[in-house]
TrEMBL record:
InterPro entries: UGlyAH_Cupin_dom (IPR008579). Signal peptide: none annotated. It comes from Arabidopsis suecica. This is (S)-ureidoglycine aminohydrolase cupin domain-containing protein. Pfam families: Cupin_3.
């Protein structure tokens, strides 16, 4: 059974060892104010959320034959300050930012 949904992985309260291993302070920074943003990930991204609060609504893979009941279930992933989040390559999603976000991020080359 193929995994149709690319998964967003959220690590809550990562250990100091994990943070040291990532060396995220050397990564580029990005920030945004509250609002909705449509993003598409051309590469896998890991980010460390310095501040803010976000709900991400992934777009399901486009499939004309999907039943309407599936389409109506809108699931989201929530994360905020202190979390490490990994976004899979190929993901399209909407960021619903409730508190201004600052993050460090890095793209992983396959």
């Amino acid at each position: 059974m193929g995994d149709q949904n690319p998964r967003i992985i959220v690590e809550k309260n990562p250990s100091q060892a994990r943070l040291d291993e990532l060396k995220f302070k050397s990564w580029p920074k990005w920030g945004c104010s509250p609002g909705k943003y449509h993003l598409k990930y051309e590469a896998e991204e890991i980010c460390y959320i310095v501040r803010g609060k976000v709900k991400v609504y992934p777009k399901p893979p486009s499939s004309s034959s999907s039943s309407s009941s599936d389409a109506e279930v809108e699931w989201c992933v929530e994360f905020g300050a202190g979390d490490i989040v990994t976004f899979p390559k190929g993901l399209s999603c909407t960021w619903d930012v409730s508190l201004s976000v600052d993050k460090h991020y890095i793209f992983l080359s396959s």
